[in-house]
Amino acid sequence: MPSPQLFTPLRVRNLELKNRIVIAPMCQYSAEDGCMTDWHLIHLGQLALSGAALLTIEASAVTPDGRITYGDVGLYDDATEKAMGRTLDGIRRWSDMPIAIQLGHAGRKASTERPWLGGSQIAPDHTNGWQTVAPSAVAFNPKYVAPTALDEQGMKRIRDAFAEAAVRSARLGIDAVQIHAAHGYLLHQFLSPLSNQRTDAYGGSLENRMRFPLEVFDAVRQAFPSDKAVTVRISATDWVEGGLNIEETVAFCQRLQEKGCDAIHVSSGGLHIEQKIPLSPSYQVPLARAVKAAVTIPVVAVGLITDPVQAEAIVATGDADLIALARTVLYDPRWPWHAAAALGGQVEAAPQYLRCQPSQFKDLFKS
Ligand SMILES: Cc1cc2nc3c(=O)[nH]c(=O)nc-3n(C[C@H](O)[C@H](O)[C@H](O)COP(=O)(O)O)c2cc1C
């Protein structure tokens, strides 16, 4: 059997990835006032022992009003930085897995209840709610309070907050930053004509709609150490007629590459309630393939990748350079071990766990 591509290394700027498996960012809605709690140490700690190449910290808000829920992690002041530092110290003591952070702002999709409590929007005059902001005063959902359209000062505040969060990330020794421009959150709201109805230099043509996300990219790239990677997560299509489409996304990715973006993580949807997503295994891989055909930087595929053979095929055929896992690795936090066993690859395991290898004890069960 040829050696699996899924377990070959890849370098992204100075980031040495030992294999092609990335843990996708996953909000846990378990922070207090933006501060990570013991939950994050448990959750991220177990994933840091999974054998994947890179652990991505969940969407971390660059301002308090950029949190999706009041339980979101933030990285916007000394208290949130200190709490994240405590979590990272705990993880790093026992794992050398590189750690990336997703920095984001939820825009008009902020101020909601935790998903397991229904996820509905919390009005600004209710406990745990606040007034949201967006490119235009267009609500995500008829049940939502309309966001306030950002003026230039408001945009500057958020752009600076992204840069400040990148500085905090660097101070915490985080290995890479991923800018969240997907899933209908603020930067995606600027990109999509359905949510961006501005008539100034930040709305209208694709060039104008890309302007703010590209400015945020530049600000983060400048604020984060030049030897460390800055990547972007995108929604390649809104899955709605008249929304952001793959052709526009490809143009955006090419601009990001010109500006020094180190990798593109290709997701989709999340912007509009009328989206029609053709859910099936690997359903976003064709979008990753289209982006990959247009750029030379690494591309990450994600979405219903659950099976080692499926993951290997995505990397081996060159549809994407890396695969990311979310629900799959929550369900089976040792998925990379099991994929390595199935495909004949190797991953690192903590010495404390080495005695669990079936090859070391399975003979005991032979009669
Ligand atoms: C619990 C949970 C939390 C998530 N939080 C984030 C997040 O913080 N940022 C993000 O970009 N995507 C987030 N996602 C989306 C995942 O990163 C991923 O793109 C999506 O679940 C598809 O991958 P999967 O089929 O492997 O789950 C989340 C998904 C889940 C299940």
- The assigned CATH architecture is Alpha-Beta Barrel
Remind me, CATH topology? TIM Barrel
Give me the side-by-side strand order of the main sheet.
3-4-5-8-9-10-11-12
The major pleated sheet works out as:
8 strands, parallel, barrel
Q: What ligands can be seen in this structure? A: flavin mononucleotide
Number of helical regions: 11
Shape: globular
Overall structural class, as computed from helix and strand content, comes to alpha/beta
- The low-confidence parts are none
CATH superfamily: Aldolase class I
Q: What is the H-and-E element order?
A: EEEHEHEEEHEHHEHEHEHEHHH
> What is the CATH class designation?
Alpha Beta
Number of domains: 1
Radius of gyration using CA atoms only: 20 Å
Overall pLDDT level: 97
Give an account of the 3D structure:
- With 367 residues, the protein is of the alpha/beta class.
- It has one domain: TIM Barrel (Alpha-Beta Barrel), CATH 3.20.20.70.
- It has eleven helices and twelve strands.
- The chain has helices spanning 38-47, 78-94, 152-171, 186-191, 206-223, 246-258, 285-292, 308-316, 327-331, 335-343, 358-361, and strands at 10-12, 15-17, 21-23, 54-61, 99-104, 133-134, 148-149, 176-181, 229-235, 264-267, 299-302, 322-325.
- Strands 3-4-5-8-9-10-11-12 form an eight-stranded parallel beta barrel, surrounded by five helices.
- Helix 1 (38-47) runs parallel beside helix 2 and helix 5 (206-223) packs parallel to helix 6 (246-258).
- The protein is globular.
- Bound molecules: flavin mononucleotide.
- Residues 24-27, 58-59, 102, 180, 182-183, 233, 267, 302-305, 325-328 line the site of flavin mononucleotide.
